[in-house]
Write a structure and sequence with these properties.
Length: 349
């Protein structure tokens, strides 16, 4: 059984107390919300904070306010269950509800927060192992070692952005509020992420994520498809979030397509977006736009499934999300490869 290392746990009674505790403790400290990512990482000695500041009981982080017409604000401490069962989120931001509902298991969704999900550590088969396993290969660049086992001549780490909600938040144009004792700033969700497996967040360690601002719905329609091995629970090895604005006659006025799970950051498929603008969503237009997801997806062999097949699946999934938003039937069979336990939410409108 893996055990947690020794650490001091602090439980602030207010946001301002949490910020003070963080300022006092300095770089040795980390925040924890549900702990469903941080505590397993601590058990594997991937992250070893000496002080952990608990956020789970802070009411201001659990609010959900606003209306879809003006935009809604999700407190970063809302659990994934709070988010995916909220009727307004389900009705007006279905892609957010779908992504949250597809994360891990009901028990973990009752603990895990939406904020923790947006700040999830990047993942890699050579890193998500216990200390002894990692020691036996002399560790790797992401923690305690020097080289990257996935790309040994690479100067950078290629660990994978593996959160389900991240591509959705980027695609719908959400914003996040970061607060620390030295100030407060709002960022577009897209600006929060770097293409680097180690420095994957544009966030200082002392900054507290307090709010996620969902934009006014304003005619945008979005969906999320996730590829994983097991239907019961698994991290995404590909996630596609697609958000479209269609004119009354079905012409695409604006499009955002974002891939997760196939790079160290969420990848915007700019070429597909351009290929859709001003067009009606026929099969031919959809296939043309989706084909540009193939070069955009950059999977490596550091998660589940062969990387070539995941790259192929990116094309198929982008086409699937576009067909779903256009109200067309699903697009044929997936590329040949291993059996997929679930490629949800195919067939779910
Ligand atoms: C078996 C298993 C399966 C999983 N499957 C999936 C999956 O399919 N998809 C998926 O996306 N995730 C998955 N997860 C990961 C995790 O459960 C979720 O991402 C969850 O939403 C993380 O939230 P949390 O509150 O538990 O984060 P925590 O573990 O509390 O924190 C995660 C990180 O965020 C930081 N943090 C948390 N909240 C804040 C805040 N408000 N401000 C600043 N920093 C903060 C912490 O310091 C830490 O670095 C899985 C986990 C397990 C154990
Ligand atoms: S991509 Fe390379 S450096 Fe990064 S976690 Fe994996 S093996 Fe380590």
């Amino acid at each position: 059984m893996l055990r947690l290392p020794k650490f001091r746990y602090l439980q602030p009674k207010s946001l301002s107390e949490a910020l003070l505790m963080m300022a006092d403790a300095g770089p040795e400290a980390m925040y924890v919300a549900g702990g469903t990512d941080l505590y397993p990482n601590m058990k594997r000695r991937q992250q070893t904070p000496k002080v952990v500041i608990g956020l789970a009981h802070l009411e201001p982080l659990r609010m959900l306010r606003g209306e879809p017409e003006q935009g809604m604000v999700l407190g970063a401490g809302l659990t994934l269950t709070d988010v995916c069962t909220d009727k307004r989120v389900q009705a007006s931001y279905p892609a957010v509800a779908i992504a949250a509902e597809l994360i891990s298991t009901p028990l973990l969704r009752n603990m895990g927060s939406i904020g923790g999900n947006l700040l999830l550590d990047t993942r890699c088969n050579y890193y998500d192992q216990n200390y002894e396993w990692r020691k036996s290969i002399h560790f790797c660049m992401k923690k305690d070692g020097e080289i990257c086992w996935v790309a040994p001549s690479s100067p950078r780490c290629w660990a994978v952005q593996s959160s389900d909600c991240v591509p959705v938040m980027v695609a719908i144009g959400a914003k996040v509020r970061l607060v620390s004792s030295s100030g407060d700033r709002m960022l577009d969700a897209a600006e929060l992420y770097h293409d680097d497996g180690i420095r994957h967040l544009n966030k200082r360690p002392e900054e507290l994520l307090t709010e996620i601002h969902l934009p006014p719905v304003n005619g945008w329609r979005a969906t999320y498809w996730k590829l994983r091995r097991r239907g019961s629970f698994d991290f995404p090895v590909l996630g596609v979030a697609t958000c479209l604005k269609l004119a009354n006659d079905g012409t695409v006025e604006a499009a955002k397509i974002v891939l997760g799970g196939v790079g160290s950051h969420p990848i915007e498929v700019v070429a597909a977006q351009k290929a859709l603008l001003g067009k009606k969503l026929t099969r031919e237009i959809i296939q043309g736009a989706a084909s540009t997801a193939y070069p955009a997806a950059k999977p490596l062999d550091n998660t589940d499934y062969a990387m070539a097949w995941r790259k192929d699946m990116a094309r198929y999934y982008v086409a699937g999300t576009l067909a779903e938003l256009a109200g067309l039937p699903p697009n044929g069979s997936p590329p040949e490869g291993p059996l997929i336990a679930i490629s949800s939410p195919i067939g779910k409108a």
